[in-house]
């Protein structure tokens, strides 16, 4: 793996750690969950053969400290961070953007807020539960997660969240999804350190975020909504499919499940490379 160039960017309320590798048009990779820039270690070098690939730790995660560690988090603020990175790293031309999970929610808001700075967005399983017909049940899930976090602690809250995200399925299938490559396992300590912040302040704000569907519909020619081939029935797959339905767009199926980026990096990266091009696939049916 090539060592990237690193830098820091002051933004309102935080300092962002970012990494850059490769050359060519800018591709900004926005991580989701409790991950940071390292989430993309499995694909960044390959993508850097065609793009200047920028990754970063979102505010409050890993090496991107908040000025106020207790500050509330908002999707618009995280999208503004991404915008400021685009302004720094690609001031003269629109960039391509990929976002995973909560990072996909950031990417969607970035597109609606700053469309002139974005040439193409690929959003993989953004868990925007307010678009679902059973949104009220999902609000109850989020409330239960927060109450459990407050009264019982992190791991019981994580268990409720994980159960709510998954489908009723074969336990062996779910176990296979959790068998991570050595590189991913090596960063587990940092991910675990981010979990209290993620569950307490990212999950409730991001999953309850209501995307601007009218604006996204107008910009759908530069948006690819994506999901995991193996995550059908899971909450993030349902939200991606519902978003695609509401916007009248196709749904691109990536290998693996919600964490296919980690479990199937080579195949995931190859399809992402195609999807980032205007002439790339907008749908891949099973």
UniProtKB/TrEMBL annotation:
One of its GO terms (biological process) is glycerolipid catabolic process. InterPro entries: AB_hydrolase, AB_hydrolase_1, AB_hydrolase_fold. The keyword Cell membrane does not apply. Residues 25-142 form the AB hydrolase-1 domain. Keywords: Hydrolase. GO terms for molecular function: triacylglycerol lipase activity. This is Alpha/beta hydrolase. It holds the Pfam family Abhydrolase_1.
């Amino acid at each position: 793996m090539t060592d990237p160039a690193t830098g820091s960017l002051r933004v309102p309320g935080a300092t962002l750690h970012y990494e850059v590798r490769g050359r060519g048009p800018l591709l900004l990779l926005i991580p989701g969950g409790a991950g940071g820039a390292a989430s993309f270690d499995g694909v960044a070098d390959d993508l850097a053969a065609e793009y200047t690939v920028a990754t970063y730790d979102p505010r409050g995660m890993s090496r991107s400290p908040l000025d106020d560690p207790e500050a509330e988090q908002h999707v618009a603020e995280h999208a503004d961070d991404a915008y400021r990175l685009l302004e720094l790293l690609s001031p003269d031309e629109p960039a391509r953007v990929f976002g995973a999970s909560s990072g996909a929610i950031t990417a969607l808001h970035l597109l609606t807020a700053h469309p002139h700075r974005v040439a193409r967005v690929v959003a993989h399983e953004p868990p925007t539960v307010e678009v679902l017909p059973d949104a009220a049940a999902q609000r109850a899930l989020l409330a239960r997660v927060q109450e459990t976090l407050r009264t019982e602690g992190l791991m019981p809250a994580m268990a409720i969240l994980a159960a709510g995200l998954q489908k009723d399925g074969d336990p062996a299938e779910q176990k296979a999804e959790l068998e991570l490559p050595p590189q991913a396992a090596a960063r587990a300590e940092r991910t675990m350190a981010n979990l209290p912040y993620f569950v307490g302040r990212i999950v409730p704000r991001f999953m309850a975020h209501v995307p601007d569907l009218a604006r996204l519909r107008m910009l759908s020619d530069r948006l690819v909504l994506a999901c995991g081939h193996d995550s059908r029935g899971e909450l993030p797959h349902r939200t991606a499919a519902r978003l695609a339905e509401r916007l009248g767009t196709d749904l691109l199926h990536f290998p693996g499940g919600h964490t296919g980026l980690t479990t199937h990096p080579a195949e995931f990266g190859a399809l992402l490379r195609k999807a980032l091009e205007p002439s790339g696939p907008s749908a891949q049916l099973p």
